Amino acid sequence: GVFLGQDKQGMKDILDPNFDAHLFSASEIFGLSYTRLLSDYRGDRGEVIQKQAKELRQRSKPYTFKPFYGGTKGTPGEERYYAAFRKRYAGVHAEQENWIAEVARTGRLITPWGMRFTWRTYVDKRGVLMNRANFKPVGPAISNYPVQNLATAEIVPIAIVALYKRCKAEKLDVKFVNTVHDSVVCYIGEGLKNYVAFKRAAERAFTTAVYEHLSIFYNIEFNVPLGVEMVTGDRWGEGTETKYDDVDNWSEET
User: Fold this and answer.
1) What distances in angstroms separate CA 100 from CA 89, 94, 120, 129, 217, one per listed residue?
2) CB 9 within 8 A of CB 224
3) What pLDDT is recorded for position 253?
4) Which H or E element spans position 24?
5) Residue 235: partners with Cβ closer than 8 Å, 6 or more residues away
6) What is the Cα–Cα distance from 52 to 29, expressed in whole angstroms?
7) How far is Cα 118 from Cα 147, in angstroms, rounded to an integer?
8) DSSP 174
9) Helical packing angle, 90-106 and 8-15, nearest 10°
10) Which of 25, 181, 194, 232 is at 20 to 30 A from 133, Cα to Cα?
């Protein structure tokens, strides 16, 4: 979403180690100071308060990225956050409004990578653009489809295929078991050398390989840093989490 809107604030937040999107949503939803909540989350006032901050952050997660997908309604606290999101990320919001205007005018939306979405619409008495197929507001879908499509239907498959090819080329002891949304589940053979090689392959597959593929085959210069999180353990969803963010290779001028 930040890339599609070329949102300057969003790019700054991604590069800012002191910014946490889920704490931002929590601060707005629960009417708290972001600075204080960040301090509490880091444990500056003790473990009890830190635990409370973590709970608030967790409770806010379902709403943090909802505005990317056209969400506007909810509790007063949630709607306060959605308004704050639109103000903070004006570039994202403006681009979503442009998409809605385009669909209202032409009945279709064509993404920069060539995907076409079409709707049969009408404007109701309230002035809301509606979908003739289900008589529901079409704005959320228009706001959602390009974001979800680029992230989940384009970038993630590119990364997974790149990871598979790299593992095969290096003859790593890895079995690809499943994919879920933006995650891939693998069995990794024993041995530190094998694990380290897989970790490096994953880091590259979900960052550099994506940038290169988008540039070569989509003619898209992706100027927002990506990252990957890996959970290593004996069971799916359990274990030690490590993160790799490509932020170190970027600057605000990148």
Assistant:
1) 17, 10, 13, 8, 27
2) no
3) 46
4) helix 21-29
5) none
6) 15
7) 16
8) E
9) 140
10) 181
Cα gap 38→24, rounded to integer Å: 9
Token readout for 109 is 């939306």
Within 13 A of 127's CA, how many CA atoms are on the CB side? 1
pLDDT at 252: 46
**DSSP, residue by residue, 109-159:** EE-TTS-EEE--EEE-TTS-EEETTTSSBSHHHHHHHHHHIIIIIIIHHHH
Helix and strand totals (H; E) in the chain: 11, 8
Rounded CA gap, 20 and 43, in Å?
A: 15
Phi, psi of 191 (to 5 degrees): 115, 130
For the chain, 254 residues long, the average pLDDT of each consecutive 10-residue run is 94 91 96 95 92 94 90 93 96 96 96 95 94 94 94 94 95 92 88 91 94 95 90 82 66 45
Beta strands 174-180 and 129-131 are: unpaired
Q: Is 120 exposed, middle or buried (0-12, 13-18, 19+ CB in 10 A)?
A: exposed
132 is written with which tokens?
A: 């003739």
- Output the six-digit token pair for 185: 């589940």
